[in-house]
Amino acid sequence: MAKMWSGRTDGVVDKLADDFNSSISFDCRMYRQDITGSMAHAAMLAAKNIITEAEAEELICGLEGILGDLESGALTFDPECEDIHMFVEQVLTQRIGDVGKKLHTARSRNDQVALDIRMYLRDEIDSIRALAKALISVLCEVSESHKATIMPGYTHLQRAQPITFGHHLMAYAMMLLRDADRLADCRRRMNLSPIGCCALAGTTYDTDRRFEAEKLGFDGICLNSLDGVSDRDFCAELMSDLSILMMHLSRFSEEVILWSSWEFKFIELSDTFSTGSSIMPQKKNPDMAELVRGKTGRVYGDLMGLLTTLKGLPLAYNKDMQEDKEGVFDACDTVKMCLEVFAGMIKTMTVRTDNMKKAAQTGFINATDLADYLVKKGMPFRAAYKISGKLVAECIEKKCVLEELSLEEYRAHSELFGEDLYGEIALETCVGKRISEGGTSVESVEAQIKWVKEQINKM
Fold it and tell me: Is residue 150 within 8 Å of residue 356, measured between CB atoms?
């Protein structure tokens, strides 16, 4: 079958080359954006008297019929068509005749695909931000339940200082808020219309690009036609933002995997978000978290693939740019799936508060508070630090914790120790004293939860 662009050539392409060149297998997902954009284009052509009002009405009615039939399943995509644009135009012409051929006046597939992908990714960003918001809401909910649940905080994966589980979870809520903010910023830069840039140089027709942009919900137009058809910064920026989001989920996944191990046993994942072993009946595997961690590399790869594709392209459009879609579609699909699974996994997990508290007690993570106790009594910090270290070593030798040493044992190191010591080094006190804004005290965690909820209500 000869192509709609036949003329300079006979339009007959070798089957292997045709398949290699075709993009309809993946750009068909933009059918709604392609058809909506074409409706706006037809309306603009009529408004500028390039076609008649009757012709515009016939085009728009025909396009509405195609959209309805695709969504109902009455019409399926023809794999013989080169891309979604050619498919829609071909079906339209078959249905309404020669008037359908007027739709492509004053535009090119170059600006048409640039329009479609901006509109499609604009919708994808909205969906991803909604899923991020849902996960943040889950984190706030679980944090509220565990704002006073004591656990060890870590540096270098070594027990460091006592914190609350709610405080730990809110750290990830803050990361996801930044992710949502980055995506909103990306959407703002993306929301400029390229339609009317045509192949690369604009058109001789007296068009109204701003009419079309406003009709399609854009904030403005691309002000340089070469840039309008060749720009894929918005794809790279989106994939970069998604890569950072996945990095956050991957870090969280690593902790979920550690916490659910027998060595930690801080949490137990729900059976509905775990799997078993085919040979070891005792196993309960955190496969969802492991898959999120693994899929992070996939999204990174999508980003690097696009950056590599774009790095040597001269202006304006080159067929290489067809390679933007599969990567950015895959990144969006992957992130949406990971966010949705993660929210369910966190919402349904069981928190082993007793194991968290026990780990905090046996890690000497109140040693800094012990040193601070002496400092408040007038001892220089370095001297207090040294005594605290010696007391920790003594506890290790005696196989006990700081709270179990007698006052006499403490006073053997310094006369400054008094009966008030035990209240000062109790884990609840250690956590409660972290009253600085953003700290781990219950009041601080409550303030963080309140602030985050205010932010997501604005999303």
Answer: yes
